[in-house]
Amino acid sequence: GCHGSALTGMEPAIPGLVGLRPAYISAQLGAWRYGTRTAAAPDCMQVVAGHLTEEDVSAVAAYLASLPVPADPSPVPQGSLRTPLSCGSEPQS
Asked: What is the structure's pLDDT at 84?
């Protein structure tokens, strides 16, 4: 997926999802859902988050916050992942 198998993200602009508090994750997903947080077009996170219900957001936030942080939480180098969606953070070629 976009954030990598270890969910540590990809340089330069796809963030890691591990080691974050559930309230932060919920707030960010809510901001994507309601359009108060946006990215360069195409804004894939707004599309993804827009399909989530409030219950989904809570469940995703709790799940991600429960995951252990890997020994090396560094994001993978740019171009290491093929994202399933085109997005402003990592356009597909």
From this structure: 79
Contact (Cβ atoms closer than 8 angstroms) between residue 48 and residue 29:
no
3-state secondary structure of 59: helix
Using CA atoms, how far residue 61 sits from 11, 29, 50, 54, 87, in Å, is: 22, 9, 15, 11, 22
pLDDT at 86 over 80: no
Q: 72 CB contacts (<8 Å, ≥6 apart)?
A: 8
Predicted confidence (pLDDT) per residue in 25-62, tens digit: 999 999 999 999 988 888 889 889 999 999 999 999 99
CA geometry: angle at 37 spanning 33 and 41, to 5°? Answer: 95
Domain 1-66: give its CATH architecture: Orthogonal Bundle (1.10)
Q: Alpha carbon of 12 to those of 15, 22, 27, 64, 74: distances in Å? A: 8, 23, 22, 21, 11
